[in-house]
Amino acid sequence: MAANPQLNSHGELQHLLSIEGLPRAILEQILNTAESFVGVTEREVKKVPLMRGKSVFNLFFEPSTRTRTTFEIAAKRLSADVINLNIAVSSQTKGESLLDTVANLSAMQADLFVVRHGSSGAPYLIARHVKPHEHVINAGDGRHAHPTQGLLDLYTIRHYKKEFGALTVAIVGDVLHSRVARSLIHGLTTLGAPEVRVIGPQTLIPAGIAALGVRVFHDMRAGLKDCDVVMMLRLQNERMAGPLLPSAQEFFMNYGLTAEKLALAKPDAIVMHPGPMNRGVEIDSPVADGPHSVILPQVTFGIAVRMAVMSIVAGN
Amino acid sequence: MSLLIKGGRVIDPASGRDEVGDVYVDKGRIAEKKGKADETIDARGLVVAPGLIDLAARLREPGQEYKATLASEMDAAVAGGVTSLACPPDTHPPLDEPGLVDMLRRRAKALARARVYPVGALTVKLAGERLTEMSVLAEAGCVAFSQSNVPITDTQVLWRALQYAATFGYPVWLRAEDKWLSREGVAHDGDMATRLGLAGIPAFTETIALATILQLVRATGARVHVCRLSTAAAVDMMREAKKQGLPVTCDVGIHYVHLSEMDLGYYDAHCRLDPPLRSQRDRDALASGLADGTIDCAVSDHAPVDEDQKQLPFAEAETGATGLELLLPLALKWGAARKLPLARTLARVTSDAARILGVQSGRVAPGAPADLVVFDPDEAWRVIPAALRSQGKNSPFLGYELAGRVRATIVAGNVVFRQG
């Protein structure tokens, strides 16, 4: 197999494409850097000049409000110039190829591309074709990876639990289509979490997921037992009724997180969700808004984590 | 005119003959007499064997000349030592009318390189609904009928198509793939697809369809050749079906005995193939099935694709790999890895394929058509775009060094390619 395309010849982060294959030291560097930025985001003047004069292009081939906005805020807090491109409704519909789009933007002197694309692997293709001084950050590709989400999830877990070495983490729901789940799994196994579980019906658990170092549960109650962290995944509307699932109601009955099911986890368990939530489908409102929920802090940490990733990548 | 190929290591895979000697060609056929010839090829240190017979090579005409042309691909064929090739009906439009078949044959004949055997569409527009005029197409020169890579989903139509073909003894070449199961998939449903986040095509996509085909063969007596096996389980099923005496044969794409899902690496679109590259266990079963004869022959599954269609995210990239010029070196690599005698290796791309195609070539014996290849089995060359004559430069083997270089190709007694 070819060398890891995210690292430069010194083993530093050139692009962030996936958490898989990143050494523990790099993950820790990102989390520590993010910690120093949390202070910045709480100041009155929420800006540092680390990326002054740099241009960040937000390339979203798939619609997104939340992730794009948090990247935009993160870049602005680093004093970078941000250009948002919603390509889903521009050049792609005119028939321009992905690489032509990137070449054109590159000609406009980009320093960093933040890419979201519906096809797994698209950021790898872009990373192979950008100029040596340009960097690519994957903001979600197909079912493959969403590394900054994974990192902010790791940051959140570390914030509340301090160490990974004794944790049991459950990831619940549509693992098959989830780039969030894959990124979190790789991050947790790299940082030494001893037990990572995935919970869902057979139709939503991909073949060979155990090879990633997880235990598969189909019974949610058994899977939640003694967990320290419960990560609920979003179920896309179009998958709620069809060959994968009969209905949103039945999904909630079997795999929705309620206070009663959460009681099976450890008393100090935290509940996470990458958003946007479907209340009453994957999570019950009292749990989403309850004392175990750290869903809103996740969003806040997300900005610091994205600042950390951008500043590290742009500095290498 | 006559031709003398002197002093080469002459291999006739069908009889197992492997000895240094001369081959004399007269009036387009291999002859007994070894007299004076109009032309002589010095083959000392080289192998003289039947030209390769490839049961699946897309020439992209008519309709897809931006990918490749008959001229470019026929050049590629003879440069790769391929002297006969069957072309699947997946052209635009598909080969479902005698006029198209006739034109293809005429244009191929005018180029005077490899022999071209068109495979007709089994259903109109390959849509899997209405039968083509098979007798008319057979008259126009179709040697078999196929759906190429678009299997019939309606089993009633498949049953009737096999009944009808069996009535007239026409061979039917089918991929075993359940389209319902594979419809969103782009990679083998296994560890690699899960890691890369690619939609999976389970192995049972192939075995379920193969079970259906075998049952229909049993019911109809149709002669079916199963194309491009990709799974270990399908190899076992074919072994069992042959043991029971069903009139079935099968092939494997030469890439599949070398590569597996692991070769997708970081989304290498050159490994986007149909069927998908499967697990290493599947690959090993295909390689040994080809060695023990369960799999009758290996094909290039040549599919030239223009670079733009490969410079896309993996799932969006077009399927296929160029193969005409790699069939010989990749067959040699497979044979060497399994320590097979050269005659046995070559049989899988010559005499065994000839048996399925029902042609007289594929032999080095007096009276056989003088379709021959002269090659250096040890000379290595690097697979780079400039080294390929095919318009398709799309290969998972780009950058590899492969042994086996063609020095001369002879079709019907004429030297149609020479190098070095």
Give your account of this protein's structure.
Chain A is an alpha/beta fold. Chain A has helices spanning 24-42, 66-77, 98-106, 122-129, 147-161, 179-190, 220-224, 248-255, 259-262, 285-288, 295-315, and strands at residues 55-60, 81-86, 112-117, 135-141, 168-172, 195-199, 215-217, 229-232, 270-272. Chain A has a five-stranded parallel β-sheet with strand order 7-6-5-8-9. In chain A, strand 3, helix 4 (122-129) and strand 4 form a beta-alpha-beta unit. The radius of gyration of chain A is 19 Å and the shape is globular. Chain B is globular and about 60 Å long. The chains are: A alpha/beta (316), B alpha/beta (420). Chain A binds chain B through residues 1-2, 5, 20, 97-99, 117, 119-122, 124-125, 141-145, 179, 182, 206-209, 211-212, and chain B through 189-191, 193-200, 202, 262, 265-267, 308, 311-316.
Helix content of chain B: 25-40%
The strand count of chain B comes to: 18
Count of DSSP H/I helices of chain B:
12
Give the neighbour order of strands across the main sheet of chain A. 7-6-5-8-9
Please provide a brief summary of the model.
The complex is a heterodimer of chains A (316) and B (420). Helix content of chain A is 37%, strand content 14%.
